[in-house]
Amino acid sequence: MLLDGLNIVVTGGTGSLGKMLIRRLMTGELGRPRKILVFSRDELKQHEMRISWHQAKLAIEDLRDFSAEDVLEFHIGDVRLYDTLLSVLRKADIVIGAAALKQVPQCEYFPFEAVRTNVEGTHNLIRAIREHGLDVQKVITISTDKACKPVNAMGMTKALQERLIISANLDYPGTHFMAVRYGNVVASRGSVVPHFQNQIDSGGPVTVTSAEMTRFLLTLDQAVDTVFEALRSGQPGDTLIPQVPSARVIDIARSMINGRPIDIQVIGVRPGEKIHEILISEEECGRTSERNGYYVIHSVIPEIGSHSRPLVRDSEYSSCETLMSGEDIHRLLQDAGFCGGSVHARSDV
Predict the structure, then answer these.
(1) C-alpha 141: how far from chain center
(2) Where are the beta strands (DSSP E) in the chain?
(3) For residues 27 and 62, is the Cβ–Cβ distance under 8 A?
(4) Is the peptide bond before 271 cis (omega within 30 degrees of 0)?
């Protein structure tokens, strides 16, 4: 299978996406990696993750012959620090770059910190592979809809991250550099759904920035599915976009409140926020095709990849395009572990 016997490095491996990526990699659905190297800068999260895997190893049927102690390897480090990143990349066959600063308001207040992680961290990754001739097969970085026509610091740094990773195919053709781009992951740390849940648990009010605001929504599993599709079928310079639904944020709040006597307050747009997000811009439509149920944006650089694929969109892919019904929102929240305004306990592994 695809990942049999390979070493997989996951930067930002203790974040919400990183943990789900590792959980899915450990099930062996793409093959049995030799090592999964968890790279992050938070020693407490690494310790907690290690303990969780130790406690779960006998409880998860899929893992009975796939020991976490043998496969998982933890590395303290920061993508901003070239030497620590290089040390773990020397072992890598596949790299999934999930390390990021992603909170929009915080990046507005500290934009250079976003540059250091999202831009310089990506440059360090590319530089290490290029300068040391590392035998890395594929690199996939995680981007966001906010990188498309960006208006905030986080989106601008993610747009630059995409450009860096795509252009790296020119400098080091032995490695396939790709990106995935998607919207709001429902249960991820810092997303609107856990925020609303905390407000509901406190009795409200639930605060919504704009009654018209819309967002693309997907579960952590759908986010991992997108990364896995890039691993399976991605070509150098590809940016994969999942075809996911969107909803009004106020409708998400109503679904989570679920008829209880909790007020909703509209408080105004926060620094750097858009009313509607875009996953594919007008400029990108002319180089966007479809593959296996995903949109694929092909490189703007003509030397990378083929531009002969058929056009599949003639307008922007916007979050106000096709909105979910209340029932659809409720179903998505259930899939993400939220049901009727209550959150179900989720395992870290």
Answers:
(1) 8
(2) 7-11, 35-40, 72-76, 94-97, 138-144, 176-182, 184-185, 206-208, 214-218, 239-242, 246-248, 264-266, 278-280, 288-291, 294-297, 317-318, 338-339, 342-343
(3) yes
(4) no
Four-residue CA torsion sign, 273, 276, 279, 285: negative
Q: Does the reported pTM lie above 0.90?
A: yes
pLDDT tens-digit series, residues 51-98: 888 776 644 455 545 677 789 999 999 999 999 999 999 999 999 999
pLDDT above 90 as % of the chain: 75
pLDDT digits (tens, 9 = 90+) for 112-157: 999 999 999 999 999 999 999 999 999 999 999 999 999 999 999 9
Domain ranges of the chain: 100-343
What are 72's strand-pairing partners? Answer: 36
Residue 53's pLDDT is 86
Tens of pLDDT, residue by residue over 155-189, are: 999 999 999 999 999 988 899 999 999 999 987 77
Total residue length of the chain: 349
Closest of 2, 92, 115 to residue 39, by C-alpha: 92
Q: Cα-flanking dihedrals φ and ψ of residue 36, to 5°?
A: -115, 115
Q: Going by C-beta distance under 8 Å and a sequence separation of 6 or more, which residues neighbour residue 182?
A: 143, 144, 145, 216, 218, 222, 223, 226, 241, 242, 244, 279
- Catalytic-labelled residue, pool 19, 102, 138, 146: 146
Q: Which residues pair with 208 in a beta bridge?
A: 266
Alpha-carbon span 241 to 290, nearest angstrom:
9
**What does CATH list as the number for 100-343?**
3.40.50.720
Cβ atoms of 249 and 209 closer than 8 Å: yes
Known catalytic residue: 146? yes
